[in-house]
Design a protein that fits this description.
63% helix, mainly alpha, 158 residues, globular, 2-methylcitrate dehydratase PrpD
Length: 158
């Protein structure tokens, strides 16, 4: 019997992931998911809810900033950029999904991109590092979904 907790095992698996774990199939699928999410997010920048969160978020500023999709002249602190871009993705509700209902890329990609942009120039990450971060985020979300008794009941509630 293992003395390790579920949380400890989960953390070890996630911490142990590296670019060597990304198969060609995972890389190709990830690129498709990222492209789809960016497309839906750019379309979502025209929605009323996205306009509202963008206006609200303008009160925040920082020396460290990330891009708001569809607005080349407007940047926000990474936390708020991820929030606004995530709202843009979800506002169209065309982003990818899995069963039970959750939208993995719309939650992960805006955060990964905002953090990557906010890194100092000397610490910029490679495209492969970005794909790894994206996949780690998807893996975390998938495992949390699997652990959740609430998530298992989503189809029955709707």
């Amino acid at each position: 019997i293992s003395s390790q907790t579920i949380t400890g095992n989960f953390a070890n698996v996630i911490h142990g992931l590296n670019a060597n774990h990304l198969t060609d199939q995972v890389i190709q699928r990830s690129k498709r998911m990222i492209l789809d999410t960016l497309g839906v997010g750019l379309l979502g920048t025209s929605t009323e809810v996205c306009h509202k969160v963008t206006q609200y978020s303008k009160i925040y500023s920082s020396d460290i900033s990330s891009t708001i999709w569809g607005h080349l002249d407007f940047r926000l602190p990474p936390l708020y950029a991820a929030f606004v871009n995530g709202v843009a993705v979800h506002s169209m509700d065309f982003d990818d999904t899995w069963h039970p209902a959750t939208h993995p890329s719309g939650a992960v990609l805006p955060a990964v991109i905002a953090l990557a942009e906010a890194l100092p120039r000397e610490k910029k990450i490679s495209g492969l590092d970005l794909l790894l971060a994206f996949n780690v985020g998807i893996e975390v979300q998938g495992r949390l979904l699997r652990f959740s008794s609430e998530a298992r009941n989503i189809p029955k509630r709707y």
